[in-house]
């Protein structure tokens, strides 16, 4: 009986101590992810400044949109790092699995192929294919996610960039 209580007490102590290790790693992971996003945003800002300047009579030059995106990425990455540092660590966080990592790599590969294909085919052809590929990789099934979402996303992007902002697509 005494031995059984000792084993139970040891198990309780192990349960109390075990979550601390993943909790600390989740805090560090959030800070590192935020710092990485800040680095990407700062890179976008630097690259945007290398674009040729427009004439002074234009309110929105070629640097405007990339600078806005780079600034937003930088601020959001900073927010992720600050929130990750200040909030209590997560106790029951699931570690990233191999499936999620492969999905991420496959999506990044699709984006690279999209960039290459865009040079040879029109935006309205390659964009729905990209969205379809991403939806399929993320587990989308049925006509709504595999047909409707790519068409709506492509239409919205074309409407905003091609028609409203007159960006040559």
* Secondary structure category: mainly alpha
N-to-C series of helices and strands: HHHHHH
- Low-pLDDT runs: 9-20
Per the principal axes of the C-alpha atoms, what is the gross shape?
A: flat
Beta fraction: under 5%
Estimated helix fraction: over 70%
Topology record:
Blueprint: H1 2-17, H2 20-48, H3 64-86, H4 98-117, H5 123-137, H6 143-164
Describe the protein.
This protein has 169 residues and is mainly α. Helices cover 74% and strands 0% of the residues. The protein has six helices and no strands. The longest helix has 29 residues. The chain is flat and about 45 Å long. It starts with a helix and ends in a 5-residue tail after the last helix. About 7% of the residues have low confidence.
Summarize this structure briefly.
The chain has 169 residues and is an all-alpha fold.
């Amino acid at each position: 009986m005494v031995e059984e209580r000792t084993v139970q007490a040891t198990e309780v102590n192990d349960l109390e101590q075990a979550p601390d290790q993943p909790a600390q790693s989740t805090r560090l992971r959030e800070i590192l992810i935020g710092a990485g996003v800040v680095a990407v945003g700062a890179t976008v800002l630097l690259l945007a400044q290398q674009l040729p300047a427009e004439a002074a009579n234009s309110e929105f030059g070629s640097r405007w949109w990339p600078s806005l995106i780079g600034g937003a990425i930088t601020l959001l990455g900073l927010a992720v790092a600050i929130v990750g540092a200040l909030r209590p660590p997560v106790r029951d966080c699931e570690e990233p699995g191999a499936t999620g990592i492969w999905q991420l790599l496959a999506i990044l590969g699709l984006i690279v192929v999209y960039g290459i294909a865009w040079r040879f085919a029109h935006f309205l052809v390659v964009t729905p294919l990209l969205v379809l590929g991403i939806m399929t990789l993320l587990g989308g099934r049925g006509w709504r996610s595999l047909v409707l979402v790519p068409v709506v996303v492509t239409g919205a992007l074309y409407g905003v960039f091609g028609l409203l902002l007159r960006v040559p697509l």
